[in-house]
UniProtKB/TrEMBL annotation:
The chain crosses the membrane at residues 441-460, 466-486, 498-526. GO terms for cellular component: endoplasmic reticulum membrane. It comes from Lactuca saligna (Willowleaf lettuce). It comes from the Eukaryota. This is ER membrane protein complex subunit 6.
Length: 528
């Protein structure tokens, strides 16, 4: 770095060939202040900022100076600056926002398969008619269920199941308000279909075949077969959702589904020791066998428990009663779409339809695609150049975290702390990205400073540079949130943070650009 021996030379890295082109005179004057430093600034042809006046007064730091500069080349500078800033800070995504929204849509549409099942089963069981009679628009022209009929229920149980039925209609409507959804899939709700499940659970055919529509106990046991599976699906889905709208919906669905499961288990728990006629086995034994079958079909460790368990599995390892199923911390178990299909198909294979869904599920996106996105998509909103810093700053941590989690699963433990026999790759999403948000923010601020310096070098400095840069930052933040469907959570928590981010970016770039020459001048003047 060479220093020109003028009264007060200060070097800036301007390209020499641009010195003349961008040469201008900037007057900083404020009558109310004693401001003799930088009476005039001129950009020399060799790429230097020259300060003819050696007198120095730092009173400008107490109040911003009024700036006025020539507009000789303002048009060209404006074009270059704007183009550069837009290039640097135009918002984008690692995965496009369309993919992110599609990702949520897939996760929300999948539960419709089970909601259709529950709605039809509860409607027919309590009233002897289904969606086609009660709410045909919800069915959307899908094929009617096979083998469904009214159950022989007592008035109290019938009333409870009727309430469940109408609740499920509301669930279907709520989901379809958020996503397009699909028509009702073909459902096999015949007695034979349930009898097959019970036979598989006991490992032998029961005689006579189990009839879910025969009485209260049989129907409640059949209600134990599938609805709980949907509950665990919602638990597994909620952390993977990106949109607050999606999360709010699933939280609401999960709350009611959990209540339904609690009612069913409570009704069965009251009858836990009763014998199921004519099989001579207790209600508790039926629930235990069904839970064992679901664990086997799901093929991902212990995620299902009957009404009676060994004391080492009960709550805090102090009870054998198990009116609500939960892991070692009494938290609800979570299942993936893949596990759910293995169970409801009854085949143990997510790609082999059967059981209650003879034609398979009707989700628009294949479950394997959803799972691939779960494993491979690293979703984070960012800016073009900043993304490089964010990415390289986070990759080591993500790789390390992935290795540890994968090693834990490989060792045979799932996220509930219990044995697992499936190697599933963990998901990295907004839920576990919160801990890395500071990295994103600091990277953004760092690039904001660089952008501000570039803007200043190209001609926009001082108050005007701050204002222009603030506007650019606010505009790009607005574009970002608009691209995200105005889901502010995908970037920062609130609009205030978005605006504050733009403000701080402009302010820091302004301060940095003008701090440099003052500090440099100070050392030039007072160095020995």
């Amino acid at each position: 770095m060479k220093i020109r021996h003028d009264p007060l030379p200060i070097f800036f890295p301007f390209p020499p060939n641009l010195g003349g082109k961008f040469g201008r005179k900037i007057n900083l004057q404020n009558p109310s202040l004693s401001f003799t430093f930088l009476r005039s600034i001129k950009l020399g042809n060799a790429g230097f900022l020259r300060f003819p006046s050696p007198s120095l007064d730092f009173s400008p730091f107490l109040s911003p100076a009024m700036l006025s500069f020539s507009t000789t080349t303002i048009t060209s500078r404006m074009i270059i600056t704007t183009s550069l800033l837009l290039f640097l800070f135009t918002p984008t995504l690692v995965s496009s926002e369309c993919e992110l929204l599609k990702y949520d849509t897939n996760l929300l549409e999948f539960p419709l398969n089970l909601e259709y099942f529950e709605a039809e089963y509860f409607l027919y069981g309590s009233m002897g008619k289904g969606l086609d009679s009660v709410e045909p628009n919800i069915a959307a022209g899908g094929p009617p269920p096979v083998g469904a009929k009214q159950a022989n229920l007592s008035p109290v149980i019938k009333d409870i199941i009727t309430q469940f039925a109408y609740q499920e209609i509301g669930h279907l409507r709520a989901i379809k308000k958020v996503v397009e959804g699909f028509a009702r899939p073909l459902l096999n709700l015949s007695s034979e279909s349930f009898a097959t499940v019970i036979n598989d659970a006991f490992g032998k055919p029961l005689s006579p075949p189990f009839d879910p529509y025969a009485n209260d106990i049989n129907y409640l046991i059949s209600c134990y077969v599938i609805p709980y599976v949907g509950l665990t699906g919602y638990v597994g889905t909620n952390p993977k959702l990106q949109s607050p709208v999606s999360r709010k919906l699933v939280a609401g669905l999960l709350g009611v589904e959990s209540g339904q499961d609690a009612v069913i288990r409570s009704l069965l728990y009251e009858r836990a020791k009763e014998k199921v006629v004519p099989y001579g086995m207790s209600v508790a034994e039926f629930t235990h066998k069904i839970s064992q079958l679901r664990n086997k079909l799901g093929n991902n460790g212990l995620k299902d428990e009957g009404l009676k368990v060994a004391s080492d599995i009960g709550a805090e390892k102090k009870t054998q009663g198990n009116i609500l199923a939960g892991d070692k911390d009494s938290l609800a178990y979570a299942r993936s779409p893949r596990e759910i299909l293995r169970i409801v198909y009854g085949t143990g294979k997510e790609h082999v339809p059967g059981g209650f869904y003879p034609n398979g599920d009707k989700s628009k996106c294949q479950v394997t695609t959803i799972l691939q996105q779960h494993s491979d998509t690293f979703v984070v909103l960012h800016f073009n150049l900043r993304s490089i810093i964010v990415f390289f700053a986070q990759v080591p941590a993500v790789q390390s975290s992935t290795s540890l989690l994968k090693a834990e699963v490989m060792a045979g433990h799932d996220d509930s702390g219990k044995k697992s026999n499936e190697n599933e790759i963990p998901t990295f999403n907004v839920e576990n990205m919160q801990s890395n948000m500071k990295v994103i923010y600091y990277s953004r601020t760092f690039m904001s400073i660089i952008g501000g310096v570039i803007a200043g070098i190209l001609g926009f400095t001082g108050l005007m540079g701050f204002v222009i840069y603030l506007l650019v930052m606010a505009l790009t933040s607005l574009c970002l949130t608009a691209k995200a469907g105005f889901s502010i959570h995908t970037y920062f928590d609130t609009w205030n943070r978005v605006l504050l981010d733009g403000f701080l970016g402009g302010l820091l770039s302004f301060v940095l650009f003008w701090t440099y020459p003052f500090i440099y001048a100070f050392f030039i003047l007072y160095s020995p």
